[in-house]
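User: Sequence for CN hydrolase domain-containing protein below. Tokens please.
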Amino acid sequence: MSRPLSLALAQAPAAPVNDLGTFGAGLERLVRAHPQSQLFVYPELHLHDTGSAEPGEEAALIESMAEPLDGPTGRALAEMAGDLGVWLVPGSFFERGEDGQVYNTAVVYSPSGRRVGAYRKVFPWRPYERVAAGSEFVVLDLAGVGRLGLSICYDAWFPEASRHLAWMGAELILNLVKTPTSDRAQEVILARANAIVNQVFVASVNAAAPDGAGRSLLVDPQGRVRIESDSSESRVLTDVIDLDDVANARAYGTAAVTRPWQQFTEFADEIELPLYSGRIDPDRWGRAPVPEGAGARATPGAASRDGGLA
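Assistant: Structure tokens for CN hydrolase domain-containing protein:
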């Protein structure tokens, strides 16, 4: 058995602000060029770029762009996904929360034209990124395929984020990025490291020049780079992955050797974690909460044949 997922990762510069027509036309061309792809992914803040605005100007620009998830931008994106019949992650944009604060939020739309997931960046890049921080990790089920976890740019630098998504059952972690700086070299390594230690697929999708340094890549649960960009130029990375590779890596081991998700057994003792004023509980290590709307219990160790997690 296998669970194939075909995806198109768009390493692209930011879209023109307040011009969803241009974005929609580009997306339609991309879908026509890659009709076999099911999931289309864009970089961080692809639709809400602040460009080279000064700090004071940037704050005002962010305030002017921010809107609720079900605002005009959200409704238009949902309609695009439905009209084209694809899973769409249009990058992230500035969300105006019900609490009045502005968040950097990634959203997922289904082929039926519905918003099925939204994630607020938990680790904004301080002190430069002046938005509110999210407080919840988010995974969601792609019906009949598998489970997707969301992260945004700087989140990848905190191993707790990717580990938590894997614990919640994510088989593919999408890290949406807008990094123009020289530390993109380190982020490429982090994408591989997060894939290796969690035995999941990781797609790190960075913006193209002039907004980002590119070098997007897709890593498999063994830590092997399946496809990558070696430049900052605009391009689309396409591939077909088998999400059953996650369960295989955990069952047989990375390089047929290492199985970190099998580290703890019912006979293991708890391990104190002073950093978090908590502990690793062996009884919880292989158990995760069920995401809202999911029909199966999320477990890092195994995948069921209906595309959910057993």
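The two ends are 15 Å apart (CA to CA).
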